[in-house]
């Protein structure tokens, strides 16, 4: 019996309108994309889908033939653009396959051109298209275009143990594990064979959680210290805590009661404490200046011979007795030095010493963050060295007056608005040098007002003489930085095996992804560095450097972004991302910021950030976790906006007081909040430091804590937490967007074990062997990260091997 249009079922009417609406949206968006110079696919597919809707409405079987053609064309276009990359393929074909399956259902199919069987030629061709799509999807799951499947050979991995330059297996005495910043643990008890038996041993809660009225983003980035039988941490509100290393029981707590009401805090964080043991130094490594570095008295007082240095968010530095956490009265004023001195009246909440200082035999050396994009007139980025016992200022490196390193006289001020160092430095006392990774002069994206001295030290690794604070050498990684590519990572010291013997090297990771490998004696590159032409042209009055340096050992993206790299959950948000891509200025890496809006890739979070890299000095292996996320940087004329944020975030519209432009910084996201660029966004990787070759690289992390319904798909998510290597050939990492601590086989990068964290693990794990029980522990802070968007918490968690029965 033939049905007429008046008897058309509601499901067919709804299908007609849905197909037509989807077609109109695709066609309109596709037409705009073509007008912008983009792909014709969306316009043609939208018109085809609109015509399918018309044919369904007219009850013509040609609707199925045309839809089958659109589906097959979409599959062919998908393979042409992205081959068989699952994460690129899925948003291109998901809607077409679901809609095609709907049209094949008998209760829909038989009502399109009544009297026709649903097993006719059109249905068969459409079914073949769906089977082809399913086959492509299945095959794509077997392909991984983003993996580097190398491995380290067994003789290399057999080399183990603690090198002469590493500390005891029972200690973790500095932020990077040792004074060399290797993030390497000499412990060998936990191996690839038994790591599956790791179980949570204890969990300690600091009690320091985000509170109402906190003026900045709360981030838990602390790396614990392990000294004697205790662990030592600091919390986002600068509270120092000691806990038992075997049980997690609290031993003592020191709360400096910082000023939490400062209006412009950008971050509330503490990355760690620094440690000094007067008994650990057998003899002087640097010459004392007359009157500046007094010798220890013949009989040193029993208190504070072992001391911890605590930097606070309100710009002070405390020296605490290791054993009870009480301030060392002989340091500064009652155990504290005021770091705001010499920085001007506006230093509170703007100058933030968020990272642990560097401690040498006689000095504690401190830098600090200056709020990004706040004002052209900000506190200076001075680096200061204080006597480790008395707290007396010994020297200051002022980037605006680099040769005037004598202590600043009372009442005077350091040069304003100079490059600062917000991350962790490293010292080589044998060479008499401290290595300072420098940042930018604020504002980051507008450089008209920068002085020659600012240009010299912006985004530069600077080696200062430990005795005098004078510059011995510097190495610039960016010329006239307009991209916030300050040096974010602690540099690592390693003696690299060469044909003529070990070479004393320093490795500096960068936000762009370069790994600069330099001779730490003189700053000369060990791995070649070359200059490359970059895009030109910026706002009136500013300029761009004609070239930028690049290391031959680099994790910078091998290709720029293209329209085909745009992503989304469906063809529609992918289409919007393509439109956004063409509306932005983008000419590849180092595209200058603009009023139009510029796509910055890698973004200001960087390929590498403060987590740095880990190095196995015995096996000569480097372990890292590079990220790939694009950001949008837009310069906004001040007269166009009434007000901007005053602090508390590095994202959004930022004021740049005193500059003609404010700046808007946002991640490059689709309307669904997904990155507009296709995954993977995060990896784990390893480098052979003998050959300087990348050996393996794998996607890292799942979508469990960032996808709807918590679906745990291995997509490769961003990481903001530091890596750890152990002498047994394992790597550990906790900083991914999903809440796990993971263990990896350093031979291949294979994930061997993971365990759930109670909150985001944006910190660096450590490992040690207890002197009391002989157990090896792995410990990490799981406290979350405000700007990274992970769950907040206050848990310090330890794992050890489960006892065998």
TrEMBL record:
What is an example of a GO molecular function annotated in this UniProt entry? quinone binding
**Which cofactors does this gene product need?**
pyrroloquinoline quinone
Q: Which GO terms describe its cellular component?
A: membrane
What sequence ranges are listed for the domain Pyrrolo-quinoline quinone repeat?
172-778
**By its UniProt entry, which InterPro entries does this protein fall under?**
PQQ_b-propeller_rpt (IPR018391), PQQ_mDH (IPR017511), PQQ_rpt_dom (IPR002372), Quinoprotein_ADH-like_sf (IPR011047)
Which Pfam family, an example, fits this chain?
Answer: PQQ
Query: Does the keyword Oxidoreductase belong to this entry?
Result: yes
Tell me yes or no: is Oxidoreductase among this UniProt entry's keywords. Answer: yes
Q: Which SUPFAM superfamilies match?
A: Quinoprotein alcohol dehydrogenase-like
Segments spanning the bilayer are 12-34, 40-56, 63-80, 92-109, 121-141
Which keywords appear in this protein's UniProt record, sorted alphabetically? Membrane, Oxidoreductase, Transmembrane, Transmembrane helix
Entry-linked NCBIfam families: PQQ_membr_DH
Query: What family is it from?
Result: Belongs to the bacterial PQQ dehydrogenase family.
Q: What is this protein called?
A: Quinoprotein glucose dehydrogenase
Q: Which organism is it from?
A: Ectopseudomonas guguanensis
